[in-house]
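yo, BMC domain-containing protein is done. seq:
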Amino acid sequence: MPVDFSALASSNDKAMSLLRRVKDSALGVVSTTSFPAIIGVADAMIKSSDVYLVGYEKTGGGQCSAIVRGGVADVRMAVHAGVETAKRFGQLVSSSLIPRPMADMEKVLPILPRLSELDGVGETQMSSGAIGLLETRGFPAMVGAADAMTKSAEIELISHETIGEGLCTILIRGSLSNVAIAVEAGMHEAERIGELSAVMVIPRPLNDLERSLPKVKQAKKPQKVKLPLKLEERQKELMPAQAPAVEVQKQKQLDLPEPELVQAQPPTIDVQIQKPLDLPEFE
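structure:
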């Protein structure tokens, strides 16, 4: 399939233009002590004004922050909406607004979106479903709640998130009615097993919010190799099998004369017979 380089270049130019707009804009940060609360805060911030949701920063100890960029007036309205939402949940830690952050801050701190994540940033299109979050203190309670949620309604598990202090959050997606039923069932199961910390149901989330949610890292599926329909069969030449070459150390042949047939003769013994002595005759 040919690659549409013009569309790719157009998308890249759009992302770069958006990155420059975000880079030269104001910065707003709101911090809470709960992951469901920070998702609800982020939803309120991006729905209250024209801001870009950069993402979240988990600082440990159960605290996490939502980061937005935009015009000064828009960021001020977004931070105000986020603070009010966090106060309503009783989870507010702190907030800040910086009209024009310096370039050194943008190089060091995670306050800019990555270029690969800019596709769809700033879109205000709403989803027709809902997102549910349930936070427990302890992993067993979260697992039990997730099991009860999937068995009680037709929902989809998105992923889970941990922010320290034993706080674990399960994220689900589905229709608003199914998500509400699943969250209620998960609450009862979490309280039965351990400690329930917080819950959140977000109806009709923006695409910007769904993009920022943690997702399960799926393993890459093996791709099938597409072979051509017609394959030319090549005749294989039959080659005689050859025995493996083994080096044999040959003994050097000695230059010896050819053997001759020799008749065996009995051994000869030389015997010396002495002459008799001339002795006188006795009468």
